[in-house]
Amino acid sequence: MDVSIDFMRRIARAAAAETLPRFRSQGAVANKQAESFDPVTEADREAERAIRALIATEYPDHGILGEEHGSENISSRHVWVIDPIDGTRAFISGLPVWGTLVGLTVDGDAVAGLMSQPFTGELFYANASGSHYEGPGGPRKLTTRKTTELSQATLFTTTPALFKGEARNRYDEFEKQVQLARYGTDCYAFAMVAAGSVDIVADPGLKPYDIVALIPIIEKAGGVVTTFEGGPAEKGGDILAAATPELHAAAMAALRG
């Protein structure tokens, strides 16, 4: 099935109505995990509630998997996967590199998705027509860079600290092979792969709602998204996104050691 850009824009607007008034407002932050810091805000919960309401009205037979409000009807062939604020740590720190992620899977495959950054007025989306951008500078079709060599690549990861044990050693060696390495920015880094500004993102331990929306945005722009082992990314895990198949293969080999 196809998803109209009008529906994607409505999702983005509904989420922004809940997130933007609470951004940089010093609102309350709760911690979801006693053993570590996993923040959640009222903006997360209310934005997801608004998104779910739109989906339920437009597609009442579809399933929904959301970070904050759980799952419903996920045995359906069509399942929407929602992260109302990907980058909550950035959100509570006042940094505009968080985004709202909403993706659609059909029989487990990600076929459409959006990443909305309302503070900067940007919408990245993919549907049957391809991968697209709307925002400052005007609309355009997204295309990845044609980088094929690690030595010419820009790499992002949330933080090398997420790589544990021997995986950290392999990551450190991998980072030495690229031209530029930068940290943070969560979903924004993945969007920049599709936009042709970043070449590789390597992030371990992602959940489905962290990546499903971004898969079609990158793939329809010419990139590749898999696990570190080369498997499908829809169920999350250790995720590697790259601008070209050649670069993806080189990065995957480096991460495997």
From TrEMBL:
InterPro entries linked to this entry: His_9_proposed, Inositol_monoP_metal-BS, Inositol_monophosphatase-like
Domain of life of the native organism: Bacteria
The cross-references to Pfam families, in alphabetical order and at most eight, read: Inositol_P
Q: Which Gene3D superfamilies match?
A: 3.40.190.80, Fructose-1,6-Bisphosphatase, subunit A, domain 1
What does the entry give for GO biological process?
Answer: inositol metabolic process; L-histidine biosynthetic process; signal transduction
* GO function terms (MF aspect): histidinol-phosphatase activity; inositol monophosphate 1-phosphatase activity; metal ion binding
The enzyme's first-digit EC class, named in words, is hydrolase
UniProt keywords, alphabetically? Amino-acid biosynthesis, Histidine biosynthesis, Hydrolase, Magnesium, Metal-binding
Pathway in which the depicted protein is active: Amino-acid biosynthesis; L-histidine biosynthesis; L-histidine from 5-phospho-alpha-D-ribose 1-diphosphate: step 8/9
Catalysed reaction(s) here are:
L-histidinol phosphate + H2O = L-histidinol + phosphate
PROSITE patterns found in the cross-reference section = IMP_1
- Which parts of the sequence bind Mg(2+)? E67, D83, I85, D86, D210
EC number(s) per entry: 3.1.3.15
Q: Tell me if Metal-binding is a UniProt keyword of this record.
A: yes
> What are its cofactors?
Mg(2+)
Is rRNA processing set as a keyword in this record? no
* PANTHER family xref list: INOSITOL MONOPHOSPHATASE (PTHR20854), INOSITOL-1-MONOPHOSPHATASE-RELATED (PTHR20854:SF4)
Instruction: Please report which protein family the annotation says this sequence is part of.
Output: Belongs to the inositol monophosphatase superfamily.
Q: What is this protein called?
A: Histidinol-phosphatase
Q: Which organism encodes this protein?
A: Rhizobium loti (Mesorhizobium loti)
